[in-house]
Amino acid sequence: MTTSLCTCKACNHGICAQRVSIFSSLDEKQLIKITDLITHKEYKKGELLVMEGEAMDSLVILNGGQVKAFRTTQDGREQILHIFSEGDFFGERNLLRDHPSAYSIEALEDVHVCLIHKREFQKLIKEYPDIALKVMEELCERLDRLENTVEAMGTRPVEARVSSVLLEFADKYGKPHPKGTMIELPLSREGIAHYIGLTRETVSRKMSLLQEEGILEMVGNKRVLLLDRKALERAVE
Question: Which of 13, 28, 120, 219 shows its CA 20 to 30 Å from the CA of 177?
Fold first, then answer.
């Protein structure tokens, strides 16, 4: 892991604050003011950015790459809670209170993050109250997604769980393709299993069945071509 202190103007990734929804109400001059407060860090694939129970003193903006937020269950299994990608942020829950992190964060690939210290962030929300409102909106959306995931794990059949996560990934990571939507999966089959509370074998078997039915086409281990979105939507109704 490497650390540097510089403004985003000096960074090859551009103005990272501009990519984050909580700063969307600010103009360019205000964004530049924020970027002067930012520290940059880089992590390699597999490195932990945060460990569950660890104190966090910064808002973390993901400026490149993907990470997973997870907890370890009492029986030693991994439960993935969130997938964060470029433009996402985390650590906001601990900026207004001194609570340890509720989950661990691991790099799914090489990642570049930008951090704003708790002290500076508290000054920002006093000066720009819209930022606090955006944070609350994002927290509500994450809570909704987490509640849907918990409900799916407890009540939905396997087909609905797999279809639901594929639709989620299609919305967030999919790109238009002549035949449908090409999805760059952020997780392996095992990772998807940890995300929706199934076994790796069950996920692989269900995805193979969806391919046989002509609903999707698997392109290597980390890409899926979604051919029939409506079929997945029917499965989660």
Answer: 13
Domain boundary residue among 120, 154, 188? 154
- CATH classification of the domain holding 79: 2.60.120.10
User: Could you give the CA distance from residue 197 to residue 1 in angstroms, rounded to a whole number?
Assistant: 31
Its domain, for residue 57, covers: 2-154
Decide: 122 and 96 in contact? Cβ < 8 Å.
Answer: yes
* The model's pTM: 0.78
Q: For the segment 94-147, what is each residue's pLDDT rounded down to a tens digit?
A: 776 777 888 899 999 999 998 988 888 888 888 878 777 777 777 777 777 666
What's the confidence (pLDDT) of residue 119? 87
Residues 16 and 57 in one domain: yes
User: How far, in Å, are 159, 175, 201 from residue 180 at the CA level?
Assistant: 20, 9, 26
Span 50-61, average pLDDT: 88
Shared-domain flag, residues 226 and 188: yes
